[in-house]
Amino acid sequence: MSIWTELSGIDYRHAYVKTGDLTTRALQAGPEDGEHVVFLHGTTGHLEAFVRNIPAHAGRYRCHSIDMLGHGYTGKPDRPGEIPAYVEHLMAYLDAVGAERAHLVGESLGGWVASWAASEHPDRVASLQLLCMGGTKVSPAVMERLKKSTRSASLEDDISFTRDRLRLLWADWDEELGEELTRIRYEIYHHPDFQRNLHNLLALQETDTRERNLLRPDRMARIKAPTLVVWGNKNPFGDVPEAEAIATAIPGARLEIFNECGHWPQHEKADLYNPLSLEFLAASSTT
Q: pLDDT tens-digit profile of 252-279?
């Protein structure tokens, strides 16, 4: 099994989309007249985080998995990556592909960005899926762990550091696909532009910056979009009570806990996540 066999059954496009002054890398698939679903990865992640989900969704929906601002092979402005900037970039991408509204699926940082977007631009967000979302707490130990592991993975030549960084996301490591993702991430992390921009990607792991970007209950209470919260019971970056607090703060949110699952429920438990997501999207459809 590999990324290419995961995608082999669908017609997809690996695209570079002009978004304002930047170019955004995207994987696009599905009917051009379908409702838009945009998949957003986590901190220092990239669009390949959703290769196990795009084929299942592309039968009905116009799918976009993107490298977010400063991430992957998307443009890298030299400024700290704070949530309003990520939201601005997301809106620029929606404009560029002609998506007046979109269903947003965000994992970790991606969920933080998606939630902020829903609170600021309710007319643009048809529904929200928040997969092990970050951004509601300041946890110095977790933040330091993320900074240290990411810097080692990016700045050390030994690929084992990149593998260790990826393994943090899984409760049960998939040797074959995990190794392929390790090689992809190693190439991204060791690109000179990525290394120069690393401090900006880790800005939200600094206490002062994180504090001013937190998703507080009053902001989550403003979210009107139908919301599904998905969590792994072995998520190393946040325990189940954090998920329960998120679902309580967002009006009408639904919570699903996956057992024996880490920080990538959409990937590690794709067989559970994909039908759940499709059922949720169908109920939240705008057509």
A: 999 999 999 999 999 999 999 999 999 9
- Please give the Cα distance from 49 to 111 (Å, whole number): 13
Structure confidence by residue, pLDDT tens digits, 5-17: 889 899 999 999 9
231's tokens? 């969590």
172 φ/ψ angles, rounded to the nearest 5 degrees: -135, 105
Residue from 159, 178, 198 nearest 71 by CA: 198
Distance from C-alpha of 23 to C-alpha of 70, rounded to nearest angstrom: 10
Rounded Cα distance between 154 and 157, Å, is: 8
Task: Decide: pTM greater than 0.90.
Answer: yes
Domain spans of the chain, in order of start: 3-283
Write out the CATH class of domain 3-283. Answer: alpha beta
Sole residue written with tokens 């084929």: 55
